[in-house]
Amino acid sequence: MNKSQLIEALAKAENLTLKKAEMVVNAMFENMAEALVQKERIEIRGFGSFKVKFYNGYKGRNPKTGDLIEVEGKKLPFFKVGKEMRERVDR
């Protein structure tokens, strides 16, 4: 499912116009993204949780030249699936 399919499903399920459903989905994603920027944890019971995880830097290789390069540490969003969702998918 992609974003436009999610918007259509929400509009149909809640009897909303596509424009209103799009506003709801966009607002939800924007608020989730802002919470992650603020280093907050997002937990959706029965689905899973999101948090920002820091990954240390390492030495890698340039695939073209084979030269060693230093890859800096970075922060990335991390999703952990909830128990109910894991069990539902694993049926």
Structure, briefly:
The chain is an alpha+beta fold. It contains 3 helices and 5 strands. It is elongated.
Overview of this protein structure:
The chain is of the alpha+beta class and 91 residues long. The protein has 2 domains: 1-39; 41-91, HU Protein, Chain A (Irregular). Helix content is 43%, strand content 30%. The chain has 3 helices and 5 strands. It has helices spanning 3-14, 18-37, 83-89; strands at residues 42-44, 48-55, 58-61, 68-71, 74-81. The strands form 2 sheets. The chain has a 3-stranded antiparallel sheet. Helix 1 (3-14) crosses helix 2 (18-37). The longest helix has 20 residues, at 18-37. The chain starts with a helix and ends with a helix.
Summary tags:
5 strands; three-stranded antiparallel sheet; HU Protein, Chain A; alpha+beta; two-stranded antiparallel sheet
Task: List strands and helices in order, with pairings.
Layout: H1 3-14, H2 18-37, E1 42-44, E2 48-55, E3 58-61, E4 68-71, E5 74-81, H3 83-89
Antiparallel strand pairs: 1-2, 2-5, 3-4
Helix pairs in contact: 1-2
